[in-house]
Each structure stands twice: as C-alpha cells, then as structure tokens.
Amino acid sequence: MTENIQTAQQNIYKPAIMKIVARHDEAPGVRTMKLEFQNPAEHELFKQNYRTGMFGLYGVYGEGESTFCVASPETRNEYIEFTFRQSGRVTTALANSDIGDLITFRGPYGNRFPIEKFYGKNLIFVSGGIALPPTRSVIWSCLDQREKFGKITIVYGARTVADLVYKHELEEWERRDDIDLVLTVDPGGESPDWKHRVGFVPTVLEQAAPSPDNCIAVICGPPIMIKFTLISLKKLGFDEPNVYTTLENRMKCGVGKCGRCNVGSIYVCKEGPVFTAAEVSRMPQGDL
Amino acid sequence: MTRILLRDKLDNCVARWRKAGLTVIGPVKKETFSSYAAVENAAELDLSMIMPDRSIKGLFFPQTEPMLHYTIKKQALDIKDFTPPPEKRIIFGARPCDASGMAIDDPLFGWDYKDNFWFQRRNETVIVTIACTKADDFCMCTSLKLAPDSTKGSDVMLRPLQNNRGWLVEELTDRGRDAFNEIADLLQDGSEPEASIAVVPEKFDLDACVTWLQKTENFESTFWKEISMRCIGCASCTFLCPTCHCFDFQDEGDTYSGIRRKNWDSCSFALFTMHTSGHNPRATQSARWRQRIMHKFNYFPGKFNVNSCSGCGRCSRQCPVDMGITETLQAISTLQP
To answer: Three-state secondary structure along A80-148?
Structure first.
C-alpha cells in the first residue's frame, strides 16, 4: 500500500506533469507512451513508491483523466510507460498527443504484486489482448532479476495476429531460452504466416499444461477469459491462493473517495487492483 | 453553570458574529425549496421547519467546485491549485441528523489520502445544532441509533426552552466555545424548563437488517429487483443525502486554459460504473439500489465502523416515486435472516 505521502495542505487531486518522450503503435488503435517526470521531487516520490501492479490516472487537461496500469516494471523507474486503446474522449486526446507534449499523471495508487513472495518459484503468466500491459510490468520486473525465479512461462493470446501488443518484446521473449513463450490467436484470427497456436487462451493453457508444483500464476484479461482461465488452472491443479490477477474498474479519484470502483465491500483502488483468485472468488460475483 | 440564549437576543448574536468576521448560515426558505444559506439577520432564518429540503452537505462538499486551474502555452503546462477561499462560518440551527452526517463522512475524506477541500471547510465552520422538537413520518434517526437531540458532529447543541423562549446552550467543542464566548454577554446564566424533544418512533430493526445484508447469498436475492422496480434512477436521494459522497471530475475549458471541477455524482446513474468496453458491473437499476443500501449499511460500516446514514429521511421524503431507505430496510426487517 502506498504510504500517505502528502503534506498537510496538499491538493491530493493535483497531478504531476509528464513529458511524452516516446510512443509506439502496438496494434490498431492501441498505443504505448513513455513518459518522463518534469519535477525531480515528484519523480523521487514515484521511485520510492512505485511497485509492479500499481496504477495511475493519466490526463490531458481540458479532456479529463483515465485509469491505466503502469506498464513499465518497478526495476525501471526512470520513466513510466502505459498502453491504451483509443476509445473515448481522454484516450482520443492522448492519441492526438505527440512526442514532446505534456500530459499529466496521478499515482502510483493501489497495491502490488508481492513478487518477493515469488522468489524461487516457477511463474506462469496468462494474458489476453490488451491485458498484456499489466502482466508485462510483472514479467519485466521478474526478468530483470531472472536468477531469483524458477521456470518462467508466458501464455499470451489475442483475437487476431494484428491485435497482439508488444510484438517487438514478444519476439525478444521468444528468442530467450530462459522463457517458455506460448502465443495464440482466436480461431479465424491467424494470418497465412502465423506459426504459433490457434485457439482460445484457456484451451491453449491446458494444452501447455504447466505443473502447479511450486508455481505462481499471474493472469490478466477480459472478464470472460479470466473466468475460463480460472477453471483451466483449477483443472491443472493450481490452488486459488497461488493465482494472482489484477482487476479493473472505472475510477475517478484513485484514492478511495469517489465511490465507484468497489466490488462488494472491496475498493479496487485501495485494496486492489491486485488480488489472488481466492480473494476474487469471495467477492460478490454479480458486482464484477 | 448552564447558559441560556434567549430568542430575542438572536438578532444581536447574528450581528455580533458577522462583525467578528463569521459568515452566518442557517435554514432559509426560498421560493421553491428550503436550504441552509447565508443570512444577514435573524429574521431571515426559519427555525420552524422540520428540516431544510437540502442538507448541509453542500456547505462542506459543494455540488460543484473548482480544484485546479490549468494554462497551456507552447511546451509549458501550468497547474495552479484552487483552495477554497478562507471563510470562517457558523451554521446556526443545523439539524442533529445533518451535523451527524458530516461527522460520518470525516473518516471517508480522511482515510490515507486527506481531501483538504473537505477538511478546510470542516475546520473553519462551527456547527450549532438545535435539538428537534418536531419530526415527521419520514424522520428515522432513532432507527439509526441516533436521536432528535444527538450531539454527534455538532460544536454546540442548543436545547429548546418551553414557549419558544430560547435555548439552553451546551458547548461541545473548543470551536463552539470560542464562537459563544464571542457573544458571552448576550447569554444569561440560569436554567429554564426545556421543551420536550420530538418523539421519533423506530421504523426498522437496524441490527436485523445488517445481519441480512451481510449474508453473502442475499446479494443475489430477488428482493433487490422487487424493491427497486419503480426506481427511475434520478439520483435525488443521493444528492439530498447528507452522507452520500460520490463525485466525478470534469474539465471545463479548452486547450489553452480551464479548470478541473469536482462534481456530485451518484451510484444511481448507469454511467457511474460503465467501463470503456461497454461492460457495466452494475448494469441494472436494482444492482445500483443494492449498491446504495449495501454501501450505507454494510460496506461503509465495515471500513469506518459507522453507518453511512444519519436518518434524516430526505431520500424517502423527496423521492418522486415514493421509495427510500426506510421502506427498503422495513422490508428487509420482515425477511428471514
């Protein structure tokens, strides 16, 4: 949990100013931006507080703020990367922003993946579509201290080949011999030169059949994928407390006051966004 | 020694407080509604109404307020804080349920991250509450374990004397004591017979309701659909509620300059929780009404150990389709736990 770092008279809704230093198109409508702090004190606070799994509110003045995870790992906190799909007012303004433009960031907020608890264990990451960014933050946080973990498996799928994000990093992971990368696209989404799997993520996961022994699973994806992936992991013998996921909900304040992101009594912005499958299964399912 | 404030001294009090730099606020009848508003003299105050249509929430958490001002020039973005201009205020004639409501929301605005927009106003405002001698059928403070003379959230409690002569002064906080020391010479020592406090019958068994709400399986009960069938999602109940605190941010301005505002929002609206993808965790009105009740009597007390309801009854009193918390909790009281 982020410590209360504000001073007495500080406006908690005031964001930091960030400069866009790089941007990269990932998939149709999906873009990654790399941001740098303009104020050293704010950057220092970020470095002290940011841990993988946390999120922030990214804003364009005159348009508003949107919530996305921090997609860059805690091991690389000189900058912030985030990935978004252009779909509404704020994301359109973000998409229209260029390198050198100034946008805003509020955060980091929320809890984190307790990766020190994963030391010495095998890891399996399961992700779908545009849910790779939060997973990617954990993946790089682990890869940057690779010796501390056992076998690392990544199962990633998207609707079509074009919809896969971080394609350049997928190639890099594929080349590494200390990662087992399983890529898939939904049936019908393959291109003529697609040489990986075709099938839905949960099915492909079951085929890959990772051993649940001494293994932590980190899953992130659209609700329907999560639902069936949890079933598949159960079949494979994974215990719910060893399965981690990160929830998303509409947020405005990010600090537990504006009242909309709760699932039952759980505030995603404060107690989350990272939960174990055991915690998620105790939430009222009709509120997810 | 007990001190008494006689009604005929009230105009002098208002003048003195104003002279001391305090904005005096109290229940005022306007053309189409009543609310707490600033007054210049005691004659403007209407202390006879059961409670103003609008709660005192807006005095601490305004319906809309600027939070930031931004200006954008070539490669330069300037953000300026808005802080509410300092204003010492005294609210004379708050209702106990309204005063309680502010105390209920203090932990929410203060947990972990402190919302100074709220606390600056809380610190600058003296709440002088008058115990209720009248109540209507919608009042339900007693069902919430409060009372028509609860002192919770008040800086000073005034207990009405018989024959409308004035009030017994009970100072509860330093802030309240300071404000009444300002007018010490207008008070008199002694005691007089007090008027009887309003009788507010208990309308539901809160503990039984909370037990029912806490049962996991009741989250999916068909009860929620039945009880909220006629809710039109207008959000009046949440806006009038002294403790409902949900808000939204909106930017007002253009590419070059503007302000970011914090506006009241409501869990009654579908857009409140709608995801960009179109998925909505609370897609139906019944899910949204369930959220409101669960939040007030299950989630909020789970976090802050206090119900997010002070029993003012405005939600039922002013609901256009005659629903409300009372009706829902009464219905829950009759269900098997």
So the answer is: EEEEEECCCHHHHHHHCCCCCCEEEEEEEECCCCCHHHHCCCEEEEEEEHHHHHHHHHHHHHHHCCHHH
In this structure, the answer to whether residues A236 and A182 fall within a common structural domain is yes
User: Which residue range forms the structural domain that includes residue A85?
Assistant: 16-109
Q: CATH number, domain at A88?
A: 2.40.30.10
Residue B254 in contact with partner chain A when CB distance is under 8 A: yes
The count of residues in chain B is 337
- For residues A119 and A242, state if they share a domain: yes
Do residues A156 and A255 share a domain?
Answer: no
Residues from chain A contacting residue B248 (CB–CB below 8 Å) = 252, 258
Chain B residues touching A85 at Cβ < 8 A: 276
What pLDDT, on a 0 to 100 scale, did the predictor assign at position B280? 93
ipTM: 0.89
The one-letter code for the residue type at B232 is I
The residue among A98, A99, A260, A263 with the most chain B CBs within 10 A of its CB, best to mutate, is A260
Among A63, A258, A284, select the one facing B246 at the smallest CB separation: A258
Is B303 an interface residue toward A (CB < 8 Å)? Answer: yes
Query: Do B115 and A104 make contact, defined as CB atoms within 8 angstroms?
Result: no
Range of the domain at B103: 3-333
One domain, residues A156 and A233: yes
Q: How far is CA B42 from CA A234, A251, B45, B169, B183, in A?
A: 70, 44, 5, 18, 15
CATH code where residue A266 lies: 2.10.240
Domain boundary pick from A53, A88, A109: A109
Please, is B207 exposed, middle or buried when counting C-beta atoms within 10 Å of its C-beta (0-12, 13-18, 19+)?
Answer: exposed
Interchain proximity A12–B298, CB inside 8 Å: no
What is the domain count for chain A?
A: 3
Q: How far is B282 from chain A (nearest CA, A)?
A: 6
How many A-B residue pairs are in contact by the CB < 8 A criterion?
135
The answer to the question of residue A21 being in a domain is yes
Whether residue A267 sits in one domain with residue A253 = yes
pLDDT above 50: residue A231: yes
Tell me which of A9 and A125 has the higher pLDDT: A125
Chain B stretch 162-221, residues whose beta carbon is closer than 8 A to a beta carbon of chain A: 216, 219-220
- Asked if residue A8 is part of any domain, the answer here is no
Asked whether the beta carbons of residue B276 and residue A85 sit closer than 8 angstroms, the reply is: yes
Instruction: Judge: B79–A253 Cβ closer than 8 Å, yes or no.
Output: no
**CA of A144 to nearest chain B CA: how many angstroms apart?**
32
| Angstrom distance (rounded) from CA A217 to CA A204 | 15
Residue-wise pLDDT tens digits, B59-76? 999 999 999 999 988 778
